Amino acid sequence: MGEEKNGIFPLEDALELILMFDGDGVISYANAAAKKKLEYAEDICGRQIRDVFPNAAFADGKPVEQELKKLVAYRKNLTCFPVEAKIVRSERLPGTYICMAIDILEKEFLEKEIEQVRNEARQASKVKSEFVANVTHELRTPVNGIQGNVRELLDEVTDVRIKKPLRLMERCCGDMNKIINNILDFSKLEAGKFVLEPRKFHFRNMMDYVQNHHRNKLTEKGLGFFVTVSPQIPEYVVGDELRIVQILNNLLSNAQKFTAVGKITAEAVCTARVGDKIELFFIVKDTGIGIDKADRDKLFESFSQVDASISRKYGGTGLGLNICKQLVGLMGGKIEVEGEKDRGSTFSFSIWVGACGDDEAPPAQTGTQTPFFTEGIKEVPLEEIRRFGTAENLKSLKNNLSKLILSVEMENWEKAEMFMETIRQMTQGAPREIGRLVLRLKMAVQKENYDRITAEYAELDRILQG
Question: How far apart (Å, rounded) are the C-alpha atoms in residues 404 and 412?
Answer without folding.
Answer: 9
